[in-house]
Design brief:
This protein is mainly beta. The chain contains one helix and 24 strands. Strands 1-24-23-22 form a four-stranded antiparallel β-sheet, with no helix packed on it. Strands 2-3-4-5 form a four-stranded antiparallel β-sheet, with no helix packed on it. The radius of gyration is 18 Å and the shape is globular.
């Protein structure tokens, strides 16, 4: 069972038998809301896979009864990205993938919740380029809400792309923008996490997929925009201790510090690198050395995919950890750097 993969200091969100994974966390007032999905194994398209949520009113120590968010009978349903709207309510992207279809075939839905117990369907956008994933939601002045997306095929080829989605009506409708297309796997930024720094600047960290026909390291990409997301530059960082890791960025405007969280699979370590945001912007080699936050499962892909939220002076990090049939969703609180 998963218990052997849960380290001291981790708070259990979901430990029911099954493959509990791919969690998203947000702070709404003093409440933490964690959404996740559960199936039988490491697959997004299982018809049995559904999206659930739990809430905590005591800083992640205990979690209330699970509620169902989405369960399509002929699709696998997964939480994809989250954020908050202009009122502070949680927004949650879900991905519904038709069972047995690869590459991805399905649709995305956006839900809104003020309490983590009732979820309102806001939007099922029709997009010219069908994303594989739509990631976290953040606010950009003068633009509204923004998410990054990517589309393509992990197995190879150059039909890979990425870009932005923007909403000027708090998530009820979305406009898609393509930033890069016809990209080979080695130049394709996937699983991005982004933050708005101010003065039109957006910083994002993404992963580079491992190419079977290349010896290039699977390092992190750094994506930057200086014009509110209209145009972007893409550079490689020197951060290579990632092993197909999904990053999570947090920016603290009070200290100017940006935290880059990621999980190094096989090594089984949840790590953080930090930098003054405007020191690392335009300088992808300026990140600090990694700091180990905690340890979890070393069982291949059956752990990781960190997502993060801020409440007070604490960062709340959620990952999943376990083995090929049983994984738990956990939250790890860690003090914000510089506080």
């Amino acid at each position: 069972m998963y218990e052997q993969y849960v380290s001291p200091g981790m708070k259990m969100v979901q430990g029911f038998p099954g493959y509990n994974s791919w969690s998203m966390i947000e702070a709404v007032g003093t409440r933490l809301i964690c959404a996740y999905s559960r199936g039988a194994g490491h697959s997004i398209d299982e018809a049995c896979r559904a999206v659930y949520a739990r809430v905590s009113d005591d800083n992640g120590e205990t979690w209330q009864e699970e509620v169902l968010v989405l369960n399509n009978a002929d699709h696998g349903d997964v939480a994809s990205g989250s954020g908050v709207d202009s009122s502070g309510a949680m927004l949650l992207w879900t991905r519904s993938c038709r069972s047995g279809i690869f590459p991805f075939e399905g649709h995305f839905s956006l839900f809104r919740t003020v309490d983590g117990k009732k979820f309102e369907l806001l939007s099922i956008p029709e997009l010219a380029v069908q994303p594989m994933q739509i990631t976290g939601i953040f606010s950009v002045p003068g633009v509204g809400l923004m998410s990054l997306w990517f589309a393509g095929n992990y197995r190879g080829g150059d039909a890979n792309s990425w870009g932005t989605l923007t909403s000027s009506d708090d998530g009820r409708s979305w406009v898609q923008h393509v930033v890069g297309d016809h990209l080979p796997k080695s130049q394709w930024p996937t699983e991005p996490s982004a933050v708005y720094l101010g003065d039109g600047k957006i910083l994002a960290i993404a992963r580079r997929e491992k190419s079977p026909d290349s010896n290039e390291l699977p390092v992190q990409f750094q994506l930057e925009s200086q014009d509110y997301g209209k145009s972007w530059s893409v550079a490689l960082t020197e951060i290579s201790d990632i092993r197909e890791s999904t990053p999570a960025l947090i920016f603290d405007p009070e200290t100017g510090i940006v935290s880059n969280y990621y999980y190094q699979r096989i090594a089984g370590t949840l790590k953080r690198r930090t930098a003054q945001a405007f020191d690392v912007f335009g300088n992808p080699a300026a990140w600090s050395a990694p700091e180990v936050i905690t340890r979890a499962s070393q069982d291949d892909h059956h752990a990781g995919n960190v997502n993060a939220a801020v409440m007070g002076n604490t960062h709340y990090l959620t990952i999943y950890t376990g083995n090929e049939t049983d994984t738990a969703v956990v939250v790890c609180p860690v003090a914000a750097p510089g506080k």
